[in-house]
Specification:
- By secondary structure, the protein is an all-alpha fold.
- It is built from 8 helices and no strands.
- 0% of the residues are buried.
């Protein structure tokens, strides 16, 4: 019998750990009457300290019936789903951004090429420039002029090598050329 009274005393008495579970107020939350006879407002630990956010989370989880492990698993699944949802569009965005950069560089090169061609077109609009190009590239001369060809000592060797190679290739049959290509000659 004495054991029961001790248990009741502990439950009622001052242990704040037991007070939260049994639904009774802790000893600090008991009402006391002031000297003027009015009932006093209860002073509870909840009023004295800021709201506990963790307690709300625990109560919300308890309302949904989720344990801490299950909440962590659900959170991990949500994070993975968000990551997978964002991954494909992000990859597409990055690849398109690189492609746009490449195309902008190519467009800049083409603009430079167009500018160079426009300058060349403006140069060729002058008849004197056209005449100079015809003399230099096509070796044209005006009627009554005497053309002179100046050959330097190294010019014969450079031109001769290419012509000899072409003659040798033309004289060989196709199967000899094929065999030389395969054998590495």
């Amino acid at each position: 019998m004495a054991g029961r009274e001790d248990d009741r005393g502990r439950r009622r008495g001052g242990s704040s750990a037991g007070a939260g579970r049994t639904g009774r107020r802790p000893s600090s939350a008991r009402r006391t009457r002031p000297a003027d006879g009015r009932p006093a407002k209860p002073t509870t630990p909840e009023r004295d300290r800021p709201p506990d956010r963790r307690g709300r989370t625990v109560r919300a989880a308890a309302a949904f019936g989720l344990s801490t492990t299950r909440r962590a698993a659900v959170l991990a699944i949500v994070v993975c789903a968000l990551a997978l949802t964002v991954a494909v569009p992000l990859r597409t965005y990055l690849s398109q951004r690189d492609e746009v950069q490449i195309q902008e560089e190519r467009a800049q090169q083409l603009r430079e090429q167009v500018d160079a061609l426009e300058r060349r077109k403006a140069e060729l609009a002058d008849p004197a420039q056209v005449e100079a190009e015809a003399r230099r590239r096509l070796r044209y001369v005006m009627p009554g002029e005497t053309p002179y060809m100046v050959e330097l000592p190294g010019d014969d060797q450079r031109e001769g090598d290419g012509e000899e190679e072409q003659k040798r290739v033309l004289e060989e049959s196709w199967y000899v050329t094929l065999w030389n290509a395969v054998s590495g000659r």
